[in-house]
């Protein structure tokens, strides 16, 4: 039998055996030397996708946008880099996809520390859509969350001068700053934010945010009832349940549960926050 015939006869059995051996060795190594490293999410650079997308930019933009929306629901705090990259890519591919700017700049940030990156993304969106009033409004919204009121007022003014802007923008800053507590101001902002979005996903998020804030305001009111009855603020929110003021604590849709922001403080002991930092 020739060498060629022998090779042809034994190639596939040998190849299959080696292939199975490599898989088995890989599984054995994983069990013997476990690693805590998590997979690194990959989002291609916008410049490359723009060159390769051709006439399919809009569908590709929509796909990356939807990928980001779906990722938000799962462990948002650990995926900020991926989410910012996905929404930035969607914006670059289709500047008309303004909802990508909303989700990237307003929905993605988890804490105040994330807002500078959100503002950076929104400023890129503003360059792509210079006549879209909602984008400078969202930038101003971020600055209000950071309590940088001069910057917020400047962007609100800029938004108010663009076509289609809602009338409230000319007076919103003065109105917001005259509010009493941070939660009340935040609730007012969500009411105005609701007027600036027009797609179901964005509206659902803002409505959920409103309900979240209302839960905290309701807890603060119960804390006042507690003090009126017992002469002190509760040491923890669970005391509201123990004393019969609440059947249970409301769910925290954006964090890991509600808690007292200043336990034991004689003036601010009623204040409530989310465990992820909230506002």
TrEMBL record:
Give the keywords, sorted: Membrane, Transmembrane, Transmembrane helix
Does the record carry Transmembrane helix as a key word? yes
TM ranges are 12-29
Q: Which domain of life, per UniProt? A: Bacteria
* One Pfam match: TPR_19
What protein is this chain from? Answer: Uncharacterized protein
> What is the protein's species of origin?
Candidatus Ozemobacter sibiricus
